[in-house]
Design brief:
Elements (H helix, E strand, L loop, with lengths): L9 H28 L4 H9 L5 H8 L7 H12 L1 H20 L2 H7 L5 E2 L2 E2 L2 E4 L15 E5 L4 E12 L6 E7 L9 E6 L6 E6 L10 E12 L7 H12 L8 H34 L1 E2 L2 E2 L4 H29 L7 H24 L10 H8 L9 H13 L5
Parallel strand pairs: 3-6
Antiparallel strand pairs: 1-2, 4-5, 5-9, 6-7, 8-9, 10-11
The structure holds flavin-adenine dinucleotide (FAD).
Flavin-adenine dinucleotide binds next to strand 3, strand 5 and helix 12.
């Protein structure tokens, strides 16, 4: 085990620069256009695929092949510093890949994860479909059903998923469904819906407040038949788990929660990227913009806002790097991943709002990027576990009590 250190190794410094250069040269100049178009930025995904940034190998590199855990937050901060909407368009397939990795066998990971990405000239998408119209935070309330047809060795899925990134346009959908409604969240399993499967369609596509370059839509599952081997983890393991739950044994794994838990420090790093973009931009602006015959930064009220922004961003980066390191070493004690995600969402919303204040009228118009960053920041209080759900997780961890 490596000790916790803030020092990035040579590989991580190169990774940071590589992602930063792509964010600066390719993503930033395209950000306003794709925000307005509210469409998946296919040309950017293609460019990212060409350099290997949109690929399962990149995901494996930052999520798995790093003994420190820091490569992921370092890379994601840079990517989302470029733009959170395009960043999410690039990373959403990773949610599907993480869902497969969390619940699948190694054969299933090898078969399906590459299909979430495709390759240059043939870019593919993955989607992770857990949330439903009547069940977001409350994962025990999912209603999408999976019923096993033993005669055909097929699973039949029915239900509606909502708020799904890449939903309905993905090649691979990872769907969380109920196999035994009596068992709540412990009666669920994750399934692969392969490309072009009959019965899966896109419902409403949402028009959003922020991260608009990332496609978000409903996924309708109407008698979707998938082969038995599309059950992640396999039937034997599922039957064993269900039997254990029915006998009242304590089972830790909840299909959806596993995925969310492993991704929280990574999501925090995305929010930090947005906050840092706004901080850097407003710092430069404050040095150049003159009012009453001097740069506005010469007023303490402006300079102190920037001092607070720098401090808060550094503080949450420390929380996030600690959480990423603990995550890599199975060391979570007080829900440190949730702490990082909670604080990062708040800092991103607050820092982007302060940046708007520093820009004055220019902060409020779409000719300047700060209002977009502010719109983008809010998602970090909502998805991958809302602000209140993070507080719930933390309060249970610190108290050891079942806080409701
Ligand atoms: C842009 C976007 C992309 C998304 N991408 C995906 C995706 O790819 N896949 C996917 O499966 N989902 C996705 N989601 C869904 C997202 O994870 C949910 O929106 C989120 O979990 C919240 O669920 P909800 O919207 O149903 O809110 P609810 O769960 O209904 O919560 C509403 C409010 O009540 C609060 N609340 C709920 N329960 C409690 C409690 N016990 N204590 C205190 N407060 C509580 C919440 O904090 C919130 O403020 C996405 C959402 C958005 C907006």
């Amino acid at each position: 085990m490596t000790g916790f250190s803030l020092r990035l190794n040579e590989d991580q410094l190169q990774l940071q620069k590589w992602v930063h250069d792509f964010a600066e040269d390719v993503i930033r100049p395209a950000a306003a256009e794709w925000d307005q178009r509210e469409e998946t930025p296919w040309p950017i995904l293609e460019q990212a695929a060409e350099i290997g940034l949109y690929s399962w190998e990149f995901l494996a590199e930052i999520m798995m092949n790093d003994p420190t855990g820091l490569s992921s937050p370092v890379a994601l901060e840079e990517l989302f510093w470029g733009d959170a909407g395009i960043g999410m368009a690039i990373m959403a397939s990773g949610l599907a890949a993480a869902g497969i990795a969390a619940a699948g066998t190694s054969e299933q990971v090898m078969e399906w994860v590459p299909q979430c990405y495709g390759g240059p000239g043939d870019v593919k998408l993955g989607a992770f479909a857990a949330s439903e119209p009547d069940a977001g935070s409350d994962v025990s309330a999912y209603r999408t059903r999976a019923v096993y047809d033993e005669a055909k060795d097929e699973w039949v899925l029915n239900g509606t998923k909502t708020w799904i990134s890449n939903g309905g346009i993905a090649d691979i959908h990872v769907v969380v469904a109920v196999v035994d409604p009596k068992l709540g969240s412990k009666g669920q399993a994750s399934f692969i819906v392969p490309p072009n499967t009959a019965g899966l369609s896109m419902g409403q596509k949402f028009s959003k407040h922020g991260i608009r370059a990332s496609h978000t839509a409903e996924v309708v599952l109407d008698d979707v038949r998938i082969p038995g081997h599309c059950l992640l983890g396999g039937k034997e393991k599922l039957d064993e788990k269900l039997a254990a739950v029915r006998e009242g044994k304590h089972i830790h794994s909840q299909a959806a929660m596993q995925t969310f838990e492993s991704t929280r420090p990574a999501v925090a790093a995305q929010a930090i990227g947005v906050a840092r973009a706004a901080y850097e931009y407003s710092l430069e602006y404050a040095k150049e913009r003159h009012a009453f015959g001097r740069p506005i930064i010469m007023n303490q009220s402006i300079a102190f806002m920037l001092a607070d922004m720098a401090t808060e961003i550094d503080a949450v980066r420390l929380l996030t790097h600690r959480a990423a390191w603990l995550g890599r070493h199975n060391g979570f004690k007080n829900a440190e991943g949730s702490m990082a995600k909670l604080k990062a969402g708040r800092v991103a919303v607050w820092a982007t709002e302060r940046a708007m204040q520093i820009l004055g009228g220019y902060g409020f118009v779409s000719d300047y990027p700060v209002e977009r960053w502010h719109r983008d920041a809010k998602i970090y209080d909502i998805f991958e576990g809302t602000e209140q759900i993070q507080q719930l997780v933390i309060s249970r961890a610190i108290s050891g009590m079942r806080i409701e």
